[in-house]
Design goal:
single chain; mainly beta; 4-stranded parallel beta sheet; globular
Length: 102
Amino acid sequence: MNNSYIKNIAFENGAALYILDGSGTTIINRDAFIKNEIIDNGLNTYGSTLYLQNSGNISVLDSLFDENKGVLGGAIYFSEIGIYYFYSLKLNFKKKPPFFSY
């Protein structure tokens, strides 16, 4: 794995990565996201690992998402993005669905 994001905790969106109003293409390749968590504050609790809104294009390749916890989007929340591409992901989720899009 190239980068590891482990046990990040946030009270709002995207405990590991938060991308808002970006442009171009975000590429996540061979990264590990393990036990990242959003604490439910009753307001903005989306995407325990990745939160992407109005952020151009996204490609997630050969990456691991393991035991991440979020209210909406156990791993990834995306809204108003361009082209998205997910390939060869390893997902392990016990409670919430890994993706949520609005």
